[in-house]
Amino acid sequence: MKHAPAPPLAAQTVFGDRLPLAMRYAEHLATTGVQHGLLGPREVPRLWPRHLLNCALLADLIAPDTHVADLGSGAGLPGIAIAVRRADLHVVLIEPLLRRAQWLRTVVADLGLEQVQVRRARADELTLDLAVPVVVARAVAPLDRLAAWALPLLIPGGELLAIKGATAAEEVERTRRAVLAAGAVSTQIHTLGVGLMPDPVTVVRLRTPPARFPGAPGQRSVTR
Ligand SMILES: C[S@@+](CC[C@H](N)C(=O)[O-])C[C@H]1O[C@@H](n2cnc3c(N)ncnc32)[C@H](O)[C@@H]1O
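A: This is the predicted complex of the input protein with S-adenosylmethionine.
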């Protein structure tokens, strides 16, 4: 069983005094994460730039004390990475596969991440049960399908932050009609980690319309 590689300098910049916690998570990914098939063995050497740092940078786009749902969390990416970086975020990891959900619960408990919950469910099973201001996702589905799953989990004025590859702009164009039909009112593309990472991170941000009446029930930022 391989161990996690040593963190690069950028990891100190991104995780600060929470770097030891990030290293402990990296060790879970490189060992039992690979054993359980959550991460390919070839990913271990590039664990930091491609997975931990790439995902943790997403927290730059999230306001303090926000409730966040990570849709299709898999090995906890990006949800655990942002919770490790930011203790103020309340994160729900949504993962339908039993073995993955069990692994996530073990890792969350071992890391002592009390602000993180695991929900074993598909996104569409949670539409009446979850209402958060931010949904995050990586490598789960094309943008149109992802929007149809994620936007019903958002409060009015909420946003989906989807980590996408270098072809994000093309995907946004190709899926524009379906994304609007799913309820998005604005689409932006952000680039994170320039000057810090060999490959900066491209994030697509979709917003839902704000509540018509301030104080309407949908305004609450809670997980139910
Ligand atoms: C390719 S993995 C990506 C995992 C992780 N986000 C990452 O970037 O490493 C996709 C994950 O989405 C989950 N998934 C697939 N369909 C889903 C759905 N309808 N709702 C929630 N999760 C789903 C799968 O079980 C799987 O763990």
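Helices lie at 9-15, 19-35, 47-56, 79-85, 98-111, 143-150, 168-181. The longest helix spans residues 19-35.
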